[in-house]
Specification:
One of its GO terms (molecular function) is ABC-type transporter activity. Keywords: Membrane, Transmembrane, Transmembrane helix. Pfam families: ABC2_membrane_2 (PF12679). This is ABC transporter permease. With 294 residues, this protein is mainly α. It has one domain. The protein is 81% helix and 0% strand. It has 14 helices and no strands.
Length: 294
């Protein structure tokens, strides 16, 4: 029965044309990104001299790859996040308002099966879309610049890139149990924006010399936002894995070059926190849905 609900979720996403619109906008972005990555590679090649293959030229090509991937995944993380948010923000309240949910629940399917089935449908579509977008950005960048060639880093990068999907779907469906579709959509957008703002503050704080009065308050605010919404921190860790920061930090003079791009890189303990955050939001959503009266 749960498989049937997953299939219904896929059909609903196609019927509402959310996924179709996302794919069209993604195609437009990838076309623009192709020319942008080529432009960055041309600048790096010209700075190194015709035919030069010394260390400076390799570093310039690597920097071009870093810039291309940073810009590409900046857009990609936004699109993936908003696909997860706007596909699931009305999963419960929207169907309750239209009467669809009241017609489905009396059938021989438990509320837990219905909720998990909907969650699985949203997450699987998001993961598939994330895999396509992740591969496209890496492929385009690899055609124009130097990117890490370790398949293990690609796998780690994709898992971190796509981890925002179950996180946001879990939080969005939980909010849908308590708020209207419009209210939950606004709340989810504000939470995601808060996480992004915390990431920007963290990047700015990483460039402030130690001992400055403004450093500690900025780090505190960034830390609170990162705990409320881990999405941006996961994106920064994903870029760090792709760039192999720990392996090339000495060549790039430590954090002087890469630190201003990524800020403080989230630790493994933070990844465990993000995983627990997702699991708690999913479990809380199931409990709230089972207890709600329709």
């Amino acid at each position: 029965m749960m498989i049937t609900i997953v299939g219904m979720t896929w059909k609903e996403m196609l019927r509402k044309r959310v996924l179709l619109l996302t794919l069209i906008l993604t195609a437009v972005f990838l076309l623009a990104f192709w020319f942008l990555a080529g432009s960055l590679r041309s600048d790096a090649a010209s700075s190194g001299g015709a035919g030069a293959r010394d260390l400076t030229t390799l570093m310039d090509a690597y920097r071009a790859g870093v810039m291309s991937l940073t810009l590409g995944f900046f857009f990609g993380s936004f699109v993936l996040a908003f696909l997860a948010i706007f596909s699931s923000f009305s999963a419960v309240s929207g169907e309750a308002e239209t009467g669809v949910l009241q017609a489905l629940l009396p059938r021989p399917v438990s509320r837990t099966q219905w909720y998990i089935g909907r969650w699985t449908g949203y997450v699987t579509v998001g993961l598939l879309y994330g895999a396509i977008l992740f591969t496209a950005i890496l492929t385009i960048t690899g055609m124009h610049a130097t990117v890490p060639g370790d398949p293990a880093s690609w796998v780690r990068g994709y898992l971190l890139f796509a981890s925002v999907v179950p996180l946001l779907v879990s939080l969005g469906m939980l909010g849908s149990c308590f708020f209207s579709s419009l209210g939950n959509g606004v709340l989810m957008t504000m939470l995601f924006g808060a996480g992004w703002l915390g990431g920007m503050i963290e990047k700015i704080a990483s460039g402030i010399p130690p001992g400055e009065a403004a450093l500690k308050p900025m780090q505190t605010i960034a830390g609170i936002f990162a705990l409320l919404m881990p999405a941006d921190s996961l994106s920064r860790r994903m870029l760090a894995e792709l760039f192999s920061v720990s392996d090339v930090s000495e060549l790039f003079d430590g954090n002087l070059t890469l630190g201003t791009t990524l800020g403080q890189i989230p630790s493994n303990a933070y990844l465990w926190y993000a995983a627990a955050y997702t699991a708690v939001m999913l479990a809380a959503g199931v409990i709230a849905f089972r207890r709600r009266d329709f």
